[in-house]
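Final report, Chapter 2: Outcomes

The project's central promise was a pipeline that accepts a single protein chain and returns its three-dimensional structure in a standardized token representation, suitable for archiving and comparison. That pipeline is now operational. To close this chapter, we reproduce one record exactly as it appears in the project archive, with the input sequence first and the structure output second.
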Amino acid sequence: MFSFLQKIGKSLMFPIATLPAAALLLRFGQDDLLGIPFMSAAGAGIIDNLAIIFAIGIAMGLAHDGNGGAALAGAVAYLVLTSAIVTINDTINMGVFAGILSGIVGGLLYNKFYNVKFPQWLAFFGGRRFVPIVTAATMTILAGVLGYAWPPIQEGIDSAGEWILNAGMFGVGAYGFLNRLLLPTGLHHVINTIVWFDFGTFTDASGEVVRGEINRFLKGDPTAGPFLSGFFPIMMFGLPSACLAMYVAAKKERKAVVGGMLFSIAFTSFLTGITEPIEFSFMFLSPILYVIHALLTGVSMMVAYALDIHHGFGFSAGAIDYVLNYGLATNPLMLLVMGLVVGAVYFVIFYFLIIKFDLQTPGREEEDEDGAENAGSGNKAVDVRAFHTIEGLGGVENVVAVDYCTTRLRMTVKDSDLVNEKELKRHGAMGVMKINKTNVQVVIGTAVEFLADAMKPRLASSNPAPSDLSVVEEEKTNEAAAVQAIAAKDFEMPIQGDIIPLSEVPDEVFAKGMMGQGFAIMPTGDTLYSPVNGRVVSVFPTKHAIGIQTDTGVDLLIHVGLDTVKLKGQGFETLVEQDTLVQRGDALLKLDLEFLKANAPSIATPIIFTNLTEQKVTMIKDGFQEQGTASILKVE
């Protein structure tokens, strides 16, 4: 469920990305600025139709291949739902929820039926053409159900919204705290969508009913803004002051190295309200500071509410939106006074905690005992690798922020098209995933922390070429042997079916473990999903087998059926290519199970761990298991 919500949160970024354009057009066209009605109408065209934009964007975001067919399914779902439901109850207005629900249904149905096959006389309606048809039928049924079920649901949502709205400072404070606390998971987009586009109602001069904090503010609702105002002091003053505190607390010899980076991300936050580069610079290095940051955000929201400040944004709470929407705001100058106080509070708290508890913020990371000079020469291989990695990412000018998790660099870049995947792999990357236009993940392995730490000072000093580019990167050759394990929670059932031991597979090579340890599945599902996070290292031309290397260096082979190589690809449809980075639950292979049963000696599907030496595969579950079931086995 958490993974599914994350996917929805990421999909929401498609429609949310339209807001800056809508807000600019809407504001510049109003009488207090340029007074051009058709500009306001153009912006309103987006704001007033956010629900269908959400339906299209979410469906496309959930589609496994991002195909436009999913977007069409989302639009069809929305049109069918909203047209049919009012015939049962003409007072129902689901607002943005209709778009979210339609997008989810459209995306899921696309993934389920995009390659469905029919007899020859119905073949025209097969594949992606069938998706809008089944979507329309599904949404017709759903509209019939929701026609009676939605009013109490909406009443519950309205009650919750009214409670939060009437909870005053505590309501807005709780929202501000959760907004920042959930940012690392991406789930903040989910609660933002509810607050920004559904909370509260306002009837404008034309009689149109507008829902949501942002929509109401931009349409002139004088009560809107409490759920937006308190972000301005944080983004324009608080986080830039945190950067100043980190700079002052940095080690003397490293201030020049981190100063440029901190100034750049601080100015970005002040001007545009884009705060992730700052937050990710200390989020994982010093989690206590991030929790305090979330608490201070909640406090700022509460204070802004208490001072009766109403201000809003179309994109984010930076100086651009502050100035642009100044004419619509109530008591906007108080935000500047608040900002100065918030900035001072952030500086004092951050500096005190960094010094008191020796927190490892930028410029204070641990170094070798012999000092920086020896660190540079003693880790030449990492330094050289850092140089090439930055160049592979498009150079210093293209890198915005560096972050990492257990095995991956999580990079914020200006343009992912400038990232050179071949160059990164040449210098040790196991794989590269371009999440979107500005986010790239580079799979490194467990040495990622050292590489990220080596990259940060290089980025701050314009990445000068190392004195010896011929240094051999020994970490790259030793990495796989160092960590070959899979925790139970990190392995999921790849397809619905019955787990059986390898010894029961009717093939001597598999049954005797000649290819390695593992288990087998008698599948009853028609789609094979990745059981682990990793990289697809091989997709057999006959499509019957896929090899994956996990983030921790374990190689596994999934072989669907026995002697299926002889089918020459019939009965299979591959959904990934070699070198694709995959997450648990990503679709790999579509199966025509009836065809395989009729044409293969057995549909037993061995899953073999091919490169284990000292490690042992321990089965935790057996018998029938649903796809996605976790803790099937562990490798240790």
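Archive annotation: The first helix runs from residue 2 to 11.
This record, like all others produced under the grant, will remain available to the consortium after the project formally closes.
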